[in-house]
Write a structure and sequence with these properties.
Oligomer: single chain
Mean pLDDT: 85
Largest sheet: 7 strands, mixed
CATH topology of the largest domain: Rossmann fold
Number of helices: 15
Number of domains: 3
Strand order of the largest sheet: 8-9-7-10-11-13-12
Distance between the termini: 18 Å
Low-confidence stretches: 242-249
Strand content: 15-25%
Amino acid sequence: MDHPAIFALASGVGRAAVAVVRVSGAGTPGILQALAGGLPEPRLATLRRLRHPGSGETLDRALVLWFPGPASYTGEDSAELHLHGGPAVIAGVAEALVAAGARPAEPGEFTRRAFLNGKLDLTAAEGIADLIDAETAAQRRQALRQAGGALATLYGGWATRLTALLARQEAFIEFEDEDLPAGLDDAVALAAAGLRAEILTHLADGQRGERLREGLEVAILGAPNAGKSSLLNALAGREAAIVSARAGTTRDVVEVRLDLGGVPVTLADTAGLREAADEIEAEGVRRARRRAEDADLIIAVFAADQAPDAETLAWVRPGTLVLANKTDLAAAPVMIGGQPALGLSLRSEEGLAALRQRLAEEAATRAGLAAEAVLTRPRHRAALAEAAGWLAELETAPLPELRAEALRAALRALGRITGQVGVEAVLDAVFGEFCIGK
């Protein structure tokens, strides 16, 4: 596609040793001629003096790279200018690029052009966005798999099978009087049912991909002075929450972001669960309960030297991580609320290493850390659920024409994930997440 030239700063904003400006689109060769005095050899970094095309003023001595399309990231004629990273240099080159006929890029416009030019599909584009935002090694690995085409390969395979089934169903309709293989219609229905089962298995993943991409929410609950804030500080490795012997010190939710075994986790210290002494503490308790309701994992903290309080016991259920703190004062009970209790002393740090290991295991279980392609976005899940629904319709459709229409609808739903069908609104949502310059 012949789009006008765009440019953007691809490196970080602010003073730096080197700044990289990307240019792409129709007119890029002329822009390089105007600024750098000619086109360098393709894909070979060349030192050039950059001049303003209007005034002829020297702006910088920079490395210039020229990528003729379609052998470029966007599939268009593209270039990179590796400048000295001072703000004045960057501003001067940006002004010169506008004078030469380019315009500043919108967020995600480079990657959007790569998609429109067939360099990647929507799932790969989303993988690139996730790679840019990755906080942990596990997120990086998942994003790399998706950017490398893992989801596109899986969904493309399903689409190919659906296309073949649709062709066979259409043949049954159009050439019913011809000498077709016996049981062709039934064979299509059987194969469609098998594909639907695969899609449903893929959907029944416990939202592992989304959880890894977005991070897990972990809420710490317990009575006042059970050690919730001390636990938050110990896991964070810093004094993120105020610790005091005075009950009710924590009134609001205090958050820290952690990397637990490659899974990003937001750990939330909450107000002590008890009958509130005033309206401010009552609001803190209400927020604590709401946070627990939304959490992927609850850590229920009890004091080993006291009887378990009823408020916290109400949140102990299968999947809750139960801690018995203050084992320096009393032995930890084996079970609390019907769940195994992990003993530790935050004062002496005894049992803290075992707790970190347990939390990493819990995070890995909930986020998956799978080697295979996994769903990473709600739009994928919605489209696959729709495709599975249409395949279920096929099993009960009374006419061959209705079965063919169900196959076509399932194929369209799959196509929306990868961008194989008209999805302008989806494109706006996907590429609007990107940073400028990507």
